[in-house]
Amino acid sequence: ADNNADTPHAPHPPTWRHPISSTRTYFSELSSFFGWKFLSWLAIEQCCISGGAFALVMALGLPLFKELGIGASRQQLYMSMMMSPWAMKPFIGVASDLFPIMGYNKRYYALYSILVGLIGCSVLLALYHSGAAQNAVDQGQTAVQRLADIIVICFTFVSYEAATLDILGEGKYSELMRLHPESGSSIISFKFGWALLGSIVIQSLVGPLSDAGYFHILFWIALALSLTPFYPTLVGWIPERIRTVEESGMVKLCGGAYLTLTPFYPTLVGWIPERIRTVEESGMVKLCRGCLFDKGSFQEKKTPFIVITLCGLSAPLLAAITTYADLVIGLVFSAVLIIAFSVATYYIFPKTFFWVFLSIILTSMSWISIGSALGYYYTASKECVPNGPNFSYTYYITVTGIVGSVVNFVAVILYQNFLSSWRFRPVLIFTIVIGSLASIVDLIIIMRWNIAIGIPDKVFFLLGSAIFENLVIILQSIPMSSIYAKIAPPGMESAVFAYTVGIANFCGMVSSLLGSGVIQWSGMITVGDTCDFDALPYLIVIFSILVPMLVGIPAAFLIPNVLQTEHLIDWEQEQWYEARTEEVETSEHGNEDDDDDDYTAEDSRLESHLL
């Protein structure tokens, strides 16, 4: 009995019968796997940044650009630009793995991202408090276009802060999940729960303040939220070991001054729990005072590091091409990149990893977004869409957003109680089918069938789209996030996790760009007093219902059909890169067995975020 009691198991989720005691037990068990400091940092980051400042600027994308007279197709291009930092995660992950600053792989990257977010919020405040925004509107379309471009860049800065903090947290918990596979998807549910809590608060403010035109107040809120992770990051709540120049393989970047002479110098006191990296570690090389380069790790797995880095750098380039040059060129460019990364992954990684990677690409690409057109239709004026829904921002963003967030929060609990025990394939197929059918609600409203049977738009939208679609979104996100974490190999958790998340975000960005093109090429008119949304029902049927099921369901069969508490890939059995490294070392070093043993023993240098 004692042995059974000591057997590790997934944290028991909160239950309806005993909400207080079961919640306390859940957090206690979760803390035993991940540590209370890291959980606290993750909660603050998700609630105030991902679910706070980032959710705020994304929610503002509709009312702010629409008020400036930007059409739905252009607005969706802007939204893709704002999402580009999330597709940069591979680059951010590799940089944090290979270039520890002041001995830390995560702390200073987190602090620099906070600084970038603060700059973005400060510029936005300057634009709206100085009257520059109103002056641009008075001067005409050209000035408005310049203003919109500046706003997008500022929003992208806030997005960069959120994406960087998010990947640093994801890299850490993916390593801990590998050590504790019995934790299942509990940390994913924890993460989404706090993000949803933040989004509820934010959405309650965005709608009313947008209707009133008080955008500057929302920018003040974003500024305050951007600062919240500063103190926990400053004192070191992300677990990591300090690296030093004495580690074997570590080199100095340069002979110059500290790269960290910023206002964040007090961060040295360290609340992000992390293992100190030293120059004595095998493969660690010193780059410059305060900044190191893990040359040993890079040389051992040079090819995957290069591919992962290029994947991260391709996102901002694609965003710039499609937004400021030509959409078609950008889509062709993205197709070439996706094919190139797929081929590289096939030759570099184990075949099991490749099939999962391909499934992620197909699933992400299958959801071709026409969300901007839907948002413009639902909030169109009576002159634009006579007898249409004509929702206010308060209703469309705040009321339905709060209801949707509450539903998402319930969905997290439902997933932990009912779906977390399913195998990956059935849970993915179930969510794909339900997600596709959820778009029928939009189709019914646009065709006005709900009015024909006597159900008002607000009631049908609230009970249908706001609840159903939000429920599906969270049920899809949890298993996919678990897959991203579980296919990361030992020693490259942060970089490979970033690669899979980055390619998913990159493909999602491409699907959004493709959706922008579909909106543009369909001939819809989404702004002004003479709007035309006649093509919208056809787009919903094709791109929101049929394509996701026809592509997503077959893609789910590429995922190993294992339980969510099991490893997706047995890396010890695969012996990925170890065998290849041994062959290279044998051919290059001959009989240097002692050096090879030391080099292999110090393979832990790759685990740059592991306790």
> For the CA atoms, what is the radius of gyration?
24 Å
Strand content: 5-15%
Contiguous helical run count: 26
Chain-averaged pLDDT: 79
Shape: globular
DSSP E strands, number: 7
The helix/strand class is: mainly alpha
> Major sheet, described briefly?
3 strands, mixed
Poorly predicted runs are 1-7, 255-265, 579-611
- Helix percent reads 55-70%
End-to-end CA span:
31 Å
What does the model show?
Helices cover 70% and strands 5% of the residues. Strands 3, 6 and 7 form a 3-stranded mixed beta sheet that branches. The chain has helices at residues 2-6, 19-34, 36-67, 72-87, 89-98, 107-129, 132-139, 141-179, 186-212, 215-227, 230-234, 295-300, 302-324, 327-348, 351-366, 371-378, 393-419, 424-438, 440-446, 449-452, 457-486, 493-521, 536-556, 571-574, 578-589, 593-601; strands spanning 235-236, 240-243, 247-253, 270-271, 274-277, 280-288, 291-294. Helix 14 runs antiparallel to helix 22. The protein has 611 residues and is mainly alpha-helical.
Layout of secondary structure:
Layout: H1 2-6, H2 19-34, H3 36-67, H4 72-87, H5 89-98, H6 107-129, H7 132-139, H8 141-179, H9 186-212, H10 215-227, H11 230-234, E1 235-236, E2 240-243, E3 247-253, E4 270-271, E5 274-277, E6 280-288, E7 291-294, H12 295-300, H13 302-324, H14 327-348, H15 351-366, H16 371-378, H17 393-419, H18 424-438, H19 440-446, H20 449-452, H21 457-486, H22 493-521, H23 536-556, H24 571-574, H25 578-589, H26 593-601
Parallel strand pairs: 1-4, 2-5, 3-6
Antiparallel strand pairs: 3-7, 6-7
Helix pairs in contact: 2-3, 3-4, 3-8, 3-9, 3-10, 4-8, 4-13, 4-16, 4-22, 5-8, 5-13, 5-22, 6-8, 6-10, 7-8, 8-22, 9-17, 13-14, 13-22, 14-15, 14-22, 15-22, 15-23, 17-21, 18-21, 18-23, 19-23, 21-22
